[in-house]
Write a structure and sequence with these properties.
about 400 residues; alpha/beta; Alpha-Beta Plaits; Rossmann fold
């Protein structure tokens, strides 16, 4: 980690009451009590889940992003006409179409809602719920990871308890009981029967034992074990197994179409960034702001294991001048099982890029959201380096 890291989580010792609530709740053992009684955060262990922040009764924990005031301001300015607020954990945040289906399944047939994406369900203080309702929001839906699938270990359990208590309180204030709803949802791999040839590669590569072979048909996906990491999708030769929201051809179309638009509107080098959804928060949740002023596009992957080398090579061949990947360090990985598979895929990618003469147009960095601002510096440096190289289109014409 950068020695000059601007810590995204801090404790204001002047406000801290030494109650140890944060200490008791931290799922990563990153909060400790010192000999003098002070409570401190080990930023090297912190995963910026925000559970401590939302639980602190003295408001002594400070966050660089997704703080209480920032969340309220977002809701206030997002869509004045929308009366439904949908809070989504980043690990399961569905696409727009999926959100509407989920709302409809729970009796909320609306197309006008405010999507609020947060690192973990446990990050939301109960006070925020009350303030949102008093501001004019009519319905709040919390789409949380299914029990046992929380990337922050305890976030779903903690927030579910809070919201159950919140439901009892808002009822006393005269709000309808269903103004606040909890929905359990987790992304899973989806098997496409007619494309499967029964090679069973997905069975062998799945690090969570969620896929089993069948003697007379295609493999079966155990939805109770699948964590949606994307390892199976990466090795399937026929794209017969996909992670919802990250389907191969959907991703392919999105950056190919973007490359064509970017070449037409801007003569500057075009950059594509693939980012693991846990390694960088601010860029993924507000890419327009982070990439403003650059001819660049940012795409999310569910995990390092879901970073397909084919997309990196294809993006460079379809018009992007540089591709940057941002992933978690091994010690920060939320889905540690099977990381060796991802590292082997990276070795294959490196070899292929070198053979194609494209190795100097790709970079991979390990980042963490606990260091606010790290992404900006690395991205700017990469853009400057690519800008000093000939465009891939010109390079191909020369070759």
């Amino acid at each position: 980690m950068n020695d000059n890291c601007l810590a995204a989580v801090k404790i204001n010792q002047d406000l801290c009451s030494r109650c140890k609530v944060c200490y008791s709740l931290c799922p990563f053992d990153s909060i400790s009590e010192k000999e003098d009684g002070r409570i401190e955060i080990d930023i090297q262990k912190c995963q910026v889940c925000g559970i401590c922040y939302s639980a602190c009764p003295a408001s002594a924990i400070e966050m660089a992003y997704y703080d209480y005031d920032g969340l309220l301001e977002y809701v206030r300015t997002a869509s004045p006409s929308a009366k439904t607020l949908v809070m989504m954990c980043r690990g399961n945040s569905p696409s727009s179409g999926e959100v509407q289906d989920i709302l409809a399944d729970h009796g909320l047939d609306t197309k006008d809602y405010i999507p609020l994406r947060i690192p973990c369900a446990g990050r939301v203080p109960t006070d925020f719920i009350f303030r949102a309702l008093s501001s004019g929001i009519g319905n709040i839906v919390s789409i949380q990871c299914q029990d046992g699938f929380c990337r922050m270990k305890e976030g779903t359990r903690i927030e579910t308890r809070r919201l159950i208590l919140g439901q009892a309180v808002i009822k006393q204030f005269g709000y309808p009981e269903d103004s606040l709803r909890v929905v359990k949802y987790s992304r899973k791999a989806v098997w496409i029967n007619h494309d499967c040839v029964g090679c069973d590669k997905c069975v062998f590569v799945c690090p969570y034992g969620a896929i089993s072979a069948d003697a007379i048909s295609s493999p079966r996906v155990d939805q109770d074990k699948c964590v949606g990491c994307g390892a199976c999708q990466l090795v399937c030769p026929h794209n017969a197994i996909q992670v919802k929201g990250y389907e191969f051809y959907s991703v392919l179309r999105s950056y190919e179409e973007a490359a064509a638009r970017m070449r037409q509107r801007d003569k500057r080098p075009s950059i594509l960034v693939f980012s693991c959804q846990w390694s960088e928060f601010s860029a993924l949740d507000d890419p327009e702001k982070m990439l403003r002023g650059r001819n660049a596009m940012l795409l999310e992957v569910p995990c390092f294991k879901g970073l397909d080398p084919v997309h990196v090579i294809n993006a460079l061949q379809k018009g992007f001048d540089g591709v940057m990947a941002v992933v978690c360090a091994a010690e920060d990985c939320k889905l540690k099982n099977g990381r060796d598979n991802a590292e082997r895929q990276l070795d294959v990618l490196q070899g292929a890029l070198k053979k194609l003469g494209l190795w100097d147009r790709f970079e991979m960095h390990e980042l963490s959201p606990r260091c606010a601002g790290d992404f900006n510096g690395i991205f700017e440096t990469f853009c400057e380096r690519i800008s000093n190289m000939p465009s891939t289109e010109r390079q191909r014409s020369v070759d």
